[in-house]
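Help!! Second protein's tokens look totally different from the first
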Amino acid sequence: MESRFLNKDSSFIPFESTVLTENIIHKAEEELGETEQKRKGYLQEFKNLIKKEKNLNADISDDFLLAFLRVKKFRLDAAFKLLKNYYSNRLIYPSLYQNFTPSHCHKILKANFMNYLPLRTPEGVAVWAPRLGSWNTSVFSSEEVTRFGLICLEKEMTNPITQVCGQITLADMKGFSWSHIFQVTIHDIKCFVNTVQDGMPIRHKAMHVINNPSIFGIIFGILKPLLSKKLKSRIHLHGDNLNSLHQFIPPDILPEEFGGTQGTFGNEDFYQRLLASEEEFKERQKYGYHVIK
């Protein structure tokens, strides 16, 4: 992932940046309890735990393991449990993790309905923006959409800024209809929760839903009981009231479709960066459990 030196006067950090500014380092200390000494010691303890886990061949690179430690605020047992969930899901949902590389998602990438916004919030939070109402159900299955969403999250989870500051999900449901409802099963919803909420090292800071029609309540009614208490408290349903959204996310970083000033929604830059990470995904496929625990 490209690093870039930032102007200290810049209001918004570019999404692709990996530079931990003084403010972000301070945030890591205050919110996560992270120090250089603690980071080194816990990384070594984490690696020792992994070596003792039967049948697990895990990626033990520092950048990868830091994602799990940071999201769990350096609670080693919780980080280790999340790591085991991360690898176990590949055995529980084998078809979801088949062809788990950007090149196999070329068609859905070109469909331009999922993207990370080019700029972060003033707090450094990444904004993941799936436009699920634009999903063409006659072209892509629910599993294909879920797989691509996981690939996008997988790409971002090793970014140190996102590890510290977290991410917001901004879901645009404009156009969401019965054709989408019929595609999504209870199994799909449980799979989403098990993989995204309980199996990925992502700090979910909030979920904002815009342009949600009344039938969205059917899916949301099934999903909500499965979510953690913390995540439930961070969900905001705005309907078509974009002024309500702007109280949380400034228009200065949003595309025109969301009432912002950053031009039209487009994922070309993210598309190219994701495709450039093909070897990274292939390398990660070498790791995992040999048998179900």
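Here's the second one for comparison:
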Amino acid sequence: MRAYDVILKKRNGEKLTKEEIEFMVNGYVTGEIPDYQMAAFLMAVYFRHMDAEERAILTEVMANSGDKIDLSSIPGIKIDKHSTGGVGDKTTLVVGPIVASLGVPVAKMSGRALGHTGGTIDKLESIPGFRTSLSEEEFFENVRKIGIAVVGQTANLVPADKKIYALRDATATVDEVSLIAASIMSKKLAGGADGYVLDVKVGSGAFMKTLEQATELAQAMVGIAKSHGKKAVAVLTNMDVPLGKMVGNSLEVLEAIETLKGNGPEDFTELCLNLSAWMCHLA
């Protein structure tokens, strides 16, 4: 099999097989396929897209490229939450404790800043002395003992996504639904949860600017989850204005604490309760 032939096939709008997708992804991770051929492949996908089966295969191959977390030793149904990101989005800091207090175990790996928005890990690390790098034993013990743990992603979790995303960022192929969905869901599958609540932001402050784009991404991610036997629901939420009143890592932590005390902004409180309800429903 040659990378040239796989690129040509997708450039011509044909459907790729599992073997062809595995060849491209695994070959790129190992260095056998150079940047310029992977860039051409990504551009072919950008213009010709992938169908639901191709997306599911791409996600699976990427998820299997590195470490996978086994949460089976933690009792109960583990539900993860993912947000596509927006200004003032600090929902994990509120939703996690709410859901954990209701008996649903929250074993969550979160990311850092993406684009103009701070990540959950960045926000937590604005708390003096807070540690987000835990051993696997500490991570599991915290979930068993207090019902919740939030940590940064391990270095070898989905290395295919790290490498492919860097190339997408440099080749103007970030905003293609199949590639976005596979990037997000490969990390979710590797994280080991039983189901996912997907908060897809739409509006001027989000990656998805229109309702049509956000709906397409939401449907793609839910489809990928279900094709791998996982529960999933997507919620489309407004990002034409910042979420809540505080923007900035430490300020958002303070607002999250006030929200947990019942003193949060109405829009932020409503969204957190909505996401929490869906997580409990799936569990």
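Reply: Different proteins will give different token patterns, so don't panic. The two ends are 43 Å apart (CA to CA).
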